[in-house]
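Handout, section 4.2: multi-component inputs.
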Amino acid sequence: MKYFTYILRNVRRNPIRSMLTIASMSISLFLMMILLSFFAMNDESTSAARIYNRIVVMNANGFAGMLPISDLAQIREMDGVLAATPFSWYGGKYKDEQMPFAQFGIDADTIFTILDEYTVPKDQLEDFKKNKDGCIIGRKLAEDRNLKVGDPLPLKGDLFPVDLDLSIRGIYDGDINRDLRMCFFHWEYFDEALKRTAMAGASSTSLAGDSGRRSGNAGTIFVKCKSADVMAPLSSKIDDHFRNSDNPTRTQTEEAFGKMFVEMMGDLKNTIYWIGGAVVISLLFVAGNAMAMAMRERTTEVAVLKAIGFGKPLVLFLILAEAVIVAGLGGVLGSLGCKALCDFVDVARYSGGFLPFFYVPWNIALTGLAVSFFIGLASGLAPALLAANSSVINGLRKVV
Amino acid sequence: MSQTASIELQGVDKEYRRDDFKIPVLTGLDLTVAEGEFLALMGPSGSGKTTLLNLIAGLDRSTRGKVIVHGQDLGDLSEAEITRWRAHNVGFIFQTYNLIPVLTAFENVELPLLLTSLSKRKRRDNVMTALKVVGLKDREHHYPRQLSGGQEQRVAIARAIVTDPYLLVADEPTGDLDRTSAGEILDLLEQLNQEFQKTILMVTHDPLAAERASRTLHLDKGQLVDDKVREARVPAAS
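Output:
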């Protein structure tokens, strides 16, 4: 502690160089935090779904395949099922927005039994159940677009040739790591719109014919199981039950279902990790160069310290501590700063609908901080060893 | 010499290696310095003055021969031991002062004390005493850039004496100073020698500075060529 003044003064000795080193460290770490958090957050939120005992049923051939709504009744009858709902993606556009937010046709009676981590005021839920054109939206979706209960929510069909004129009947809320930017509406309302379009067209156009083919499709079915123990056998049972039907199913836990989307990004995760490694190495060079320059300028000073009795280990410690403080300051700003910023500012709001929510998990922020300390140590090691082992005579000869 | 021997050099050789060449700097040097002596080392550039100073201060090692300071054969000490020995026994004064520019006068003087187990309060007392001795008690918060050359050298002297070493080595302590400041620094060194009985070894090119010493050695090509003692200035220790 008694050497802290000396170490700190050396950190501030060349403020521009220190600031630039700290800035390069913090900006690089900030960007790495964003990238790593994206994957870590996905992992964390999908893993967090484990406790809700939910399984997801979809067509064995993927999202393009149909899952008849008649399957829902059969699934509800199975042992171990607490509740089940269709969960059908709509993807309509709101006003002039290009990127649709998440919109799902669901069963109003069971959706919040199944997604029980969300809360919605009882009166709003009842109102939603009673009104077929009603919808319930997430709190953040409402905040982003300044929507409130009672407002209309017209959605223009994009994937489907039907428009939905919804009205907001409720706003749900939940934890930070849950999606608060979804819109739930009655599956029946959506399906009836598809049927109406099909009938109106009377098969005269291919578009209307397409609507007819798409009606009666549950999309996916979300099932709330009575306990975690029944999830695996129930999944097998569902798939066995529909194996020989026209639309065989693939049932998996919600966690596996979520990870499936991450896997769709292929090797991107590994690529990001490789980029992260390259960033760490380049930061090592940046910080190492700064420390080497600082030490070259202080050759005589180090010789004086050694002359008056500072031993090799102490010189080594002083230089390493300086390097760690410089890199650590960059780490604090870059990683903890990124976390603080993402905690206070709703970054997902500015993602154009790409991210439903965004936060920097603590383990990622602390990893970033640890990486900065490692960079400090590693970058300071070579200059520190050189200084500790340098000749006092040669150092003093520079000026004496 | 009737005084107790403080420094003894017995048949000391020092040579440096440059690639395949051996460059002799000191050859067969024998020297005895009494405790409390103020010794000036003079000679042309390359004569070995600073090398001799470095050997006695424990900054360098002889190629052959013994260097005994205050009864301690420096050749017997390991690298770490000789570093500790320097911290306790030797104070250094350099031509260009070599103060740490980012530390105040107080903090510069305190540096050697950080190596001790003294409390903060005791360190402060010692630093203020040293600054008082060199006449800079009121400049404790000043950085080196805020001091004149003479004042910087005074701070350097305070740093050299703050641990109360018995040997002070000064390599051209007045080399960067004007005549007035140089005179003040030499007055201070004389005071340290006579009032505080410090043994002082001073390398200088300046005959006027050498006149302040009790004894002047002349070196040439690594050998002692002249040894003048000014009896009147030798402290009568025994």
